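Below is the record:
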Amino acid sequence: MENVKTLYVTGYKSFEIGVFQDNDPKIIVIKNVLKREIMGFLDAGLEWVLVSGNLGTEIWAAEVVAELKNDYPELKLGVIYPFKEFGSNWNEKNQTNLEKIERLADFVDSVSHQPYQSPAQLKMHTRFLLEHTGASLLIYDQEYPGKTEYFLKDATLFSEQYPYEIRLITMDDLQNSMDW
């Protein structure tokens, strides 16, 4: 594992994997696997974890980072939204989740300082994340397509030109984890 200082964590949104309640047992499995993977990066020098605030994997990753800070106080969490007012049209429960991770974060900003205007803002966001991280940790399985596929394609192209690690946690990995 390369000495990665900044890691982007993303993956399935909660609804893409059938998680609709905060007490779904799948969340415990996912968080335990995320914790184990992030700890591996920490042991190799990780300093920052970035998320974009998407529901599901990214919210759970932010919660895991907050827990890990108890043992790794040097670990920092950044929330980098693609555009200003990200999530403002979400329901109250989901907006509360965003507010929660903002409170946990050491840094919060958006790549575009304008409200959503076009898909170009999402492309700029992806480019920013790739250029400002050394690796990505994705809960994603190509046998179960989801929106993360777009990021994975861009990250794969980026990794062909620059040293960049892409670590995938697949459905098999989750099912085979000791926590299942």
About this structure: The first helix runs from residue 25 to 43. Strands lie at 6-11, 48-51, 76-83, 107-112, 135-139, 165-169. The mean pLDDT is 95. Residues 6-176 form a domain with the Rossmann fold fold (CATH 3.40.50.450).
